[in-house]
Structures are given as C-alpha cells and as structure tokens.
Amino acid sequence: xxxxxxxxxxxxxxxxxxxxxxxxxxxxxxxxxxxxxxxxxxxxxxxxxxxxxxxxxxxxxxxxxxxxxxxxxxxxxxxxxxxxxxxxxxxxxxxxxxxxxxxxxxxxxxxxxxxxxxxxxxxxxxxxxxxxxxxxxxxxxxxxxxxxxxxxxxxxxxxxxxxxxxxxxxxxxxxxxxxxxxxxxxxxxxxxxxxxxxxxxxxxxxxxxxxxxxxxxxxxxxxxxxxxxxxxxxxxxxxxxxxxxxxxxxxxxxxxxxxxxxxxxxxxxxxxxxxxxxxxxxxxxxxxxxxxxxxxxxxxxxxxxxxxxxxxxxxxxxxxxxxxxxxxxxxxxxxxxxxxx
Length: 341
Prior knowledge:
14% strand, alpha/beta, eight-stranded parallel beta barrel
C-alpha cells in the first residue's frame, strides 16, 4: 500500500480522459479525429476534468501524431474542459517550437491548456531518427531541454540572459506536467515541484514505487505547494462483466500485436483470446495490462476504488482503447456516473 494512506473515495478526486485517437480496422484517421472531438464534447458534458492527447508516430492505430494540432481541434470544439498533451515527447522537438505552439494554444484558449511532457520517443528508433534528425539526441538531455522550455515561459528561471524569446509563450502560466513509467521522471518532477502523471495503463508494476518516490522527492515550488500525482488506467466498462471482457479483447489484441511487431489498426473484439495468444504471450500481457479494469458498473466501481486505495492518486486518467465508438462513449459515461455516485 502507498505511504500516508488516506481514505479517498472516487468522488473525492477528479477523473480525466486520455485519448489516443484510435484508428480502427476499416476506419480512417479522419474518422478517428471526428470521434475524438465527439468524445471530448461528451467528456465535457459528463464533467471530466481534462482531456489529453498523446504523441505517437508511425503507428497505424493512433491518429494524434500532430498532437498540438489535435489539441487545438478539441479545444475549439469544447468550452470548459482542460485540453492538453499526455504527452509531448520533448526530445522529438525544439523546446522553442513547443513553447511557441503551446503559447499559441494558451493564447487562443486561455486557462484551458496543459503541457504534459515525456522523454521517450513515442515510436520506434528508426522513426525517432527521422523525427530528431540527430542520432545523438537520445533523450538523455531531457532535463536540459526541460529547463530551456520552462525558461521560455518564465525567463526568471534562466541563470543567463535569454536572447531568444517565445512569442507567444513568454509569461503565460501554462501548467507543465512530467509523464513517466519509471522513477526518472517521478524524481525529477518531485525535485522541480511539478505535477506528475504515471502511465500505469502500460507499466503497472512500478506505479506505487514511482508515486512514492515522487512524493518523497517533492520540493515545494511556485507551481505547487504539495505533490500532485495523476495515474492513468485502462477502463473498459459495459453493462455486464462478460460484455466488458469481450470489448477488452481489442486492447489485448493491440498489445499482442505490439509484442509481435505487427502494428495494425485496432481490431474488432473477439469472444475469446484463446487460440490467438500463446501461454507466454498471455502471461506477458497480463503483466503489462495488470492494472486494467474490465467490467460492469459494480465491478468497475469496486476495482477503481481498490486502484485508488493502492495508488492514493490525486487524479485518475481513464484510457479506453475500444473498437466501437458508441461502446467507448458508453464506457466513459458509466465511469462518470460511478464517480458522481
């Protein structure tokens, strides 16, 4: 169990959405991006706190590669919900360009933009080289890049005069989050006094240790007085446990295809995964998707409470990689109803 455990209820913490703009078999990126806006509009109506989009490249099942553009699309089509990146993979970009992009977004949609940052490539190494151009840029200088980016927004953070300015960007109070699936970003976020988001949806084993490390490392800053940790979790909710388990086979097939290096659009659900995976693959997926929650409203409520008890998260971000858009909407509506209850 987590350190300093408190009796948090689901209604005590905000719930948010992570959307990968899934491209399904037989579908198109255009359809996926229309579905993204539709889900965001419903999420706003259902009182989700924020709506994040993720940067991935060269993946035929994800349409949000131009993340800043999709954020603008979603923010323009909604009115209240916070919209941001979960995340921008900073080593893929010039910090100045990201400062300008998010400065522009914040100028267009004031008070609604989040900048979540990761240090992974968000793709394979060949594509990373195509993105970064410089093969020496392997993400190890992430802390230096982060310092440069933060100084564009707040020049007082720089120890030397900055002769290059981010316009728009300079002086704008855009929340910067660090994202991670290990202890590196957890510790860095704590030391800098920044909010931290942990990717439990694909790396569940390290969730509690990473959050504990973040809280132990935390130094108050002008951004935060105390630590704030958000945790991502796969949730597939349906009217019955059996239907949720069937819908969840799309996510299982996605990860199975990733393990095999067979990157294809999201596949329709199947009645059983038996015959599709080997015993070794089944065990590997059970480990990687160990925190995932599939079930009816009662099952999801119980398992989400266990998840909150274990992680002591300050916010929960729900991911639902599902084949059918209407079923995905229904899943998020079920979670919203559970949280309000």
